[in-house]
Amino acid sequence: MHLYVLALQRMFFKKTYKQRHVFVNVKASVLPESLIRIARDYFDDARPTHDWDHVERVHNLCMHIGRIEGADLEVLSCAAYLHDIGRGFEERDISVCHARKGAQLAQGLLADMGFEDTFIQKVVHCIATHRFRDGLMPETLEARVLYDADKLDAIGAIGIARAYAYAGEHNQRLVEEFEREHGDDLAVDHTSHSPIKEYKVKLSKIKDRMLTSEGRRIAEKRDAFMSAFLERLRAECEGVI
Amino acid sequence: MHLYVLALQRMFFKKTYKQRHVFVNVKASVLPESLIRIARDYFDDARPTHDWDHVERVHNLCMHIGRIEGADLEVLSCAAYLHDIGRGFEERDISVCHARKGAQLAQGLLADMGFEDTFIQKVVHCIATHRFRDGLMPETLEARVLYDADKLDAIGAIGIARAYAYAGEHNQRLVEEFEREHGDDLAVDHTSHSPIKEYKVKLSKIKDRMLTSEGRRIAEKRDAFMSAFLERLRAECEGVI
Q1: N or C: which end of chain B has fewer CB within 10 A?
Q2: Which of A188, A196, A208, A199 is closest to A237 using CA atoms?
């Protein structure tokens, strides 16, 4: 194997991955399996960019960040599993906000299962505010952790994979002209949008909008990787490597 | 910017990109603009993974490799622009081989435009054999260069972008379990296929199947980058980075 690949792997993995890959697993001890099964059922027809794998990755990040930040892991675990159950409704009708819809569905679901109202309200707040839009701001530590974890899944290597899968789903060009200057607005017309533009106008700003310090630390590393990937892509498209 | 990102960029770009990004442009001097326009028209409804951008990248690589290997750049340029004009037919009917169909279309197209028969036969051979299947082997230097250039666009950063766009187009999971052992067959059932499996069973072998030495040099670098990307992706999905 090339020396520079070994060097790259060492740089990125040595002090982070190997020391950090054990997640806190609160699933078995706190949440009934039936709740997770019900949550999962909402993703039967989900597209690859927002499927159950996304939920599980966000859950893992929540457990990691939540533990470091001292959050209530029971509330957080429940909120993570349920945070996107409203997404299918938004995809069928764009006037629906999946965060609000998800919060509403979670409220009913958890009440039916006999959870205490205090617990339910904490979970519902996390879900309702995980988009950080429409004046719905994350006010609790658990809500801030969920917000960070959800955004972290949009950057780094997984962010690249998801951005290009989205391009495939929506028929976007993969490599527009890299030199072209972009405006700062996210065009609704997907034919003129691309993963590179998405990075420039939106994803590159995630690292500066994190709400927890551990989220910020991870975001900076993921952003650096994503940025280097796009540089490499540009070089391959404009030159020969 | 992080030091390791600067290091990464230096490793990958310093001695390659900056010294190599000027392509030979034979388009203006040899091929009529009308031919390129006709070729481009075949890609009006193309999916992002096999669109006109792919053709232009393959053309660029052909010019670079062809110049180093001493190939006939006029034949190569023409073959590169026309190599995938049969792809739309294969997508509508999988019994059609796009290489054979493209060769047949190119034959008629070039004859109608008054190209000499010797030139046409050289171009047609490149197009017919660029898949290296069904006993159709690239026998000329130009055909070998086109084969290498076409395969190079499936690996490296652009290979990652295309593999994930394909996953989005075909509803594949983005990150299956990395530990899972794969068989060596390319399943037709796309629901069980993924970019990671595609790399393991197919794309990782491209570097060993190059037909020119410059193609092999580029393939090794692109493969190293793609392999490192997938390692990083695995680490993000299994741990926290």
Answers
A1: N
A2: A196
How far apart, in whole angstroms, are the C-alpha atoms of residue B77 and residue B70? 13
Chain center to CA of A117: 27
Rounded Cα distance between B147 and B131, Å, is 7
- Neighbouring residues of B86: CB distance < 8 A, sequence distance ≥ 6: B96, B97, B98, B99, B100, B101, B102, B103, B104, B105, B127
Q: What chain B residue is nearest to A166 in terms of C-alpha separation? A: B168
Distance from CA of A90 to the nearest CA of B (A): 19
Cβ pair B157:A232 closer than 8 A: yes
**Cβ distance of B17 and A241 shorter than 8 Å:** yes
CB contacts, 8 Å: A60 with chain B: 240
Structure tokens at B64: 């670079």
Q: What's the CATH architecture for A154-241?
A: Up-down Bundle (1.20)
Residue type, B82: L
Residue count of chain B: 241
- Output the pLDDT for position B21: 39
* CA–CA separation, A71 and A77 (whole Å): 10
Residue B68 in contact with partner chain A when CB distance is under 8 A: no
Minimum-distance CB partner of B162 among A13, A49, A174: A174
* CATH annotation of A24-142: 1.10.3210.10
Q: Chain A residue closest to B51 (CA)?
A: A173
Per-residue pLDDT of A149-203, as tens digits, reads 999 999 999 999 999 999 999 999 998 755 444 444 444 444 568 899 999 999 9
The closest CB to that of A11, out of B7, B12, B160, belongs to B7
Q: What is the ipTM of this complex?
A: 0.85
Say if A165 is an interface residue toward chain B (CB within 8 Å). yes
- Where would I find the beta strands (DSSP E) of chain B? none
Q: Do B167 and A218 touch (CB under 8 A)?
A: no
User: A238 to chain B, minimum CA–CA distance in Å?
Assistant: 6
d(CA A194, CA A172): 6
Type and span of the H or E element at B5: helix B3-13
Which CATH number does B24-238 carry?
1.10.3210.10
Whether A16 and B169 lie within 8 Å, measured CB to CB: no
Facing B233 at nearest CB: one of A7, A158, A241: A158
CA–CA dist A157, B241 (Å, integer): 10
Tens digit of pLDDT for each residue in B184-226? Answer: 444 444 457 899 999 999 999 999 999 999 999 999 999 999 9
pLDDT per position as a tens digit, A141-152 = 999 999 999 999
Cβ of B158 and A233 within 8 Å? yes
> What pLDDT is recorded for position B177?
55
Report how far residue B90's alpha carbon sits from residue B125's, in angstroms, rounded to the nearest whole number.
19
